[in-house]
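Open question from group meeting: does this chain pack into something compact, or does most of it stay loose? Before anyone orders reagents, we agreed to write out a predicted structure and look at it together. Recording both the input and the output here so the notebook holds the full record.
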Amino acid sequence: MDIAKTILKVLVIAFVYLGIAPLLGYYLNGKDFARRVTLGFMAWWLVRPPSDFTLMLYSIEKFRGHARGFEFNYIEAIAIGLALAALLEKRKDFRFLPPGLWVWFLFIGVGLLSVPGAINPLYALMPAFKFAKMGFVFVGLFSAIHDERDLKAIMRGFAIALIVQVIYCLWGRYVVGGFRVLGWFEHPNPMAMWSYMVAFPILGLAISKETSQRDMLLFFAAFGSAGLVVVLSVSRASLAAFGVGAMLVMFGSFVQGFTVRRVILGIFAAVGGAVVLAVAADTFMARMGGDDSPKNDLRYGLNLQAAAMCRDHPLVGIGWNNFGLANSRPLGEKYSKIIENWEAARGSKIYAKNFMANPLTESLYWLILAENGKIAFGVFFLFAGTTIWFGFRTTIAFWKTSLGLALLGVTVALGVTYVHMQVERVLVQTKNLTTWIMFCAILSRAEWWRRAEKARKRELR
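C-alpha cells returned:
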C-alpha cells in the first residue's frame, strides 16, 4: 500500500513539474494579462491550507523537526512556467541567477557542511532540498515582473488572500468559538507573521497617490483584514510588529508628502485599530497573565540547549534538521538533560519517557546556530543584509515614483520579520518561506531596474 501511494505521489509530482509547468510556460509566452493573472493566483494560493499546494515524499509525520520529508511545492511549478515564458520571449533581462540569489545558494551550500556529522544525514538533506527549490520561485518571479503592473497584480492576489483569511478566522473565532484561531496555517504565530508581512507593501500601495480608487479600496480593506487577523491570532509580538511596521510605512508616506488620501486612511486605520483592540482586550489580557520569566518559559530552556549545541559544534552545527534528535532521548541524552534540569528546578518530577520528543527552539537564529553552526549563521545574515540593502537602495531610487511606497513596504516587512525571527522560526514553514522568497525576488527585480537605469544615465553622459 505504501509503495502504491509513493508511486502515485511521484506520478503527480512528475505531471505537475514536467507537464503542467512547461505547458504553462508555453501558454504565457507573450500574454501579459495571463501572466498577471497567474502572478495574482500564485500569491492568493498561499493562503490555502499547505496540503493544497504541497506534496511530501518520504514523509515522517511523528518526527519533531522542521522538515518532515522531501517537500514539493506546486507554487514552484508555477514559477518554472513563468521563467520558461520569459525564456521563450527571449527577454534580455532574464537571468538564471538574479541579484542576491547567489547568497541564498551559498547559505544552502554551507548548510550542507553539517550533513556528514548529523545524527541522521538523510534528515539534513530535507531542508536543503526544500530551500534549494525556493530558487525556482525566486527566478520565476524575477522573470515575470516586467513593470509595476505586475507588482500590483501580485499584491492584488495577496490582498484577496488576506480578505479570505480574515473571513475564515472570524468564523473560527465567533462561530466555532476558538480562542486563538489559526486559519489555514499550522499555528497562529506564522499566520500573524504572514499577515503583517503581506500587509505593509499593500498599505504602501493603498496610500500611494498613483493607485486607482478601486485598488485603493481593495488594498486598504486587505490591510485592515491583516490587522484583524493579527489580533485574532492573539500573538503579542506580531501585534507589536504590525503596529511598528504600519507606522513606519505611514511615516514614510508623510515624508513623501501629505495628501488627503493619506490623512483620511491614516485616521481610519488609527480609529479602526483602537476599536478592534478594545473589543479584543479581554483576550489579550488573558494571555498577558502568563509568566514569561526564564524560570517558567520553555523557550528559555530550549535556547539553552541550542547554545550548548553551538558551543560543542561551533562551525557546522549538529546537523541540519537534527535538533529534534539531538535534544531528545535516547540519541540526545546529553542535551535533553538541560531541559530535564530546567524542569527539575521548577519542581517537576523527571521521567525519561517524557523527554523522547522534546520541542524545537522557537528562535530561527538559535536553530541555525545549533544545526548549521556559525558559518551558516553568518551567511544567512549576509543574505538578510543583502535584501535589506536592495530594499533601501531601490526605495530611494524609486521614491518619487509609484513604486516608492510599495518598495518601502516590502523593505519594512523584511526588516520587521528579521527582528521577529529572534523568537519565531517561522521561515522554516512553507507558506512564510515562499512569501519571504517572493518578496526577496521583488527587491531583486527592483535592484535590477535601478542598475539598468543607472547604466542608461551613464551612457547618456
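Observations to bring back to the group:
Residues 2-291+363-460 form one domain.
The first strand starts at residue 54 and ends at 57.
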